[in-house]
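for the writeup, i need someone to sanity check this before i put it in the appendix. the sequnce is what the collaborator sent (i think, or maybe the updated version? ugh). structure was predicted straight from it, no edits. if anything looks off just tell me and ill rerun, i have time this weekend
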Amino acid sequence: SALNRFLRKLLTWPERKYFYHRFADNTKWSGPEANEGLQKAAQFLAGRWAAKEAIRKACEHLGASNGFHHIIILPFASSKASPEATSRPQALILRDRFCEPTRNPPENATSPPVDFDIESLDGQLCEVSISHDSQYATAVALVPVVEEWQPL
C-alpha cells in the first residue's frame, strides 16, 4: 500500500513497529472515528518527517537522500513524568544507516513496540522537540557537534 511504502521510506523498522503499536485502534480507519484516527496518524508522521529533516539538516554527514534511516526517533520514558503524560521523543543519530533485519519482524500492534538493543547501536543522542499547530508540524533538533564518534 502507499502508506506502507511511505512508512518504509521515512521510518526504521523499530519506528514502524512503534507506529503500528500506537495506532493499533486506527489501522482499519473506517467508520465514524476514521477521520480522527487518520488525523492523529497524519500528525504523528508529519512530526516525524519534520524532526528527521531538522536533524538531517543539522548533521553535515547526512545527505539529502540518505538521512532518514540514519535517525531513530522513539519516545523516552522519564521516571519523573506523570503516568498520564506522553513520553517525549528523543533521537539517536547513527553512524551508519540502520538496516532492516534479515528476517523482518512483524509490523503489527500485537508485537511489542520495540524489541532491539539500542545499546548495540553506534551513534549519538540528540534532543528533538516536535510541535503541532493546526495543519502544520514543526521540529527543532539540538545536535551537539562531535569531532570524533564515540560509542554510546
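Helices lie at 2-10, 13-22, 34-58. The CA atoms of residues 70 and 97 lie 5 Å apart.
thx in advance!!
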